[in-house]
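--- STAGE predict ---
source: upstream dedup step, 1 unique chain passed
mode: sequence only
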Amino acid sequence: LGDLYERNRQWKRAVEALERVVKLDPEQDEMITARMQLGRILSPQLGDAKGAIGHIEALLELAPAHRAGLKRLVSLRMDNGPLPAALQAAERLREAAEEDRDHAELAWALLQIGRVEQQQGDKKAAAKAWHAAVCLVGPGGDAAKEYRALLGRDEHPKRYADALAEHLRRVAAGDLHNEDLSTTFLELARAQYENLSQVEDALATLRGGLDSYPRHPQLWLALGDGLAKAGRQGEAIEELRRLVATDPTQADAWRSLARVLQEQARHVEAAIAIAPVLVVGEPTAVERNLEAKHRPRPGWAQPGSLGPATLQAISAADAEEETALIAL
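--- STAGE serialize ---
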């Protein structure tokens, strides 16, 4: 009956029915279920945080390692205080999740521990908790986001890169499961390049990512861009050309290829590279102008039919290129 009232959002009637169950002193499993529902309904639905906390704490007296109950207590204490009680509940959840090897729940507990520690003014302890969470789940989620906010003044950026590398190591060793590590490879390379100026390490990370995900467009593009930033334009052009040959729909790859060619003053080739963006992407005004200025004009001829005289008669896009063709 309490379930039906809860599903119908009849909160007060649900509470009345569940409290009758509690008074009947049922078997432990039924008691735990009723206490859990009361802890979920009384707050926030009826604004009775004190009553909700009382039922969850009573549940935990019956089952001290009940992870759903511990998680609910953490949330209630985080919202209503006091912070030391929230920290104690999060630590209990961390211990229970560690014992059960539930890495997702463990990472959530560490996230909450970090938040409490930060609110209490202990940023070093917060960083330690979030570092441990990133080691478990990688760069996705709130733990990594809040950890990154501490980098620089409160935490050395290398610690964040170390956590990402540790996540990759643990997955490779079989200690953790992560179906898609591409985001971790990308984020580690970004941290190495932007935060630590470790250009070669960043390139090695991207190549390692491509070893695991050989045709991943974002990893491939990041490698091409990284090589260009390192002054290795020839290698960058080679990687970007391989990428667009594999997947011609990658507008950002065409853009990067055109940019590198422009940097080498290879303007006609850059215009050819930017032309596909007009079809597969959303070109900017600058890109449209580049393509229009050096627009290639396709043609057809039998092999060997273009002799020197014919080549000299071909019109080029501008006077500089016309002179270059006449010289042929």
